[in-house]
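Annual report, structural modelling task.

Input specification for the zinc ion complex:
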Amino acid sequence: MPRPPKCRRVAYLPEITYFKPAGIPLRVLEEVRMSIEEAESLRLKDLEGLEQEQGAGKMNVSRPTFQRVLASARQKIADALINGKAIRIDGGNFEMTWQRFRCRDGHEWELEYPVNKPPELCPTCNSPGVQPVIPAISFYQGRGRGGRWRKADL
Ligand SMILES: [Zn+2]
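The model returned the following structure:
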């Protein structure tokens, strides 16, 4: 029986999720779909310059899995660039992680590693109600119809 895929961890969601070549009407465009995890592997490896081992650690996957996700992401970008296709970044199988948090009294701090759940208490004033500080403008999870991110309930 196939194992259910392990949930991959993602620390950033891309704000822009659709790219298209200029001057080509949408109806004649072919589209490449990239998952959120694929975009995350590109961010970690090619933007942050992490080693594959480190990227795999951040995403909570094995190194071969990270390598496979990354190779797939790069292949899709190459396909879009060379063959003039649009890229849609969408969906996938992942859970959000955060590294920076804020308590109700406004204390902010950053953990050494991203986690998938906010800490319960503020390390400065011990108050509960800790919320993640979102790296992008807003935090959205998943996509509803019409290509918009749905706002997450935190
Ligand atoms: Zn506090």
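The radius of gyration is 18 Å.
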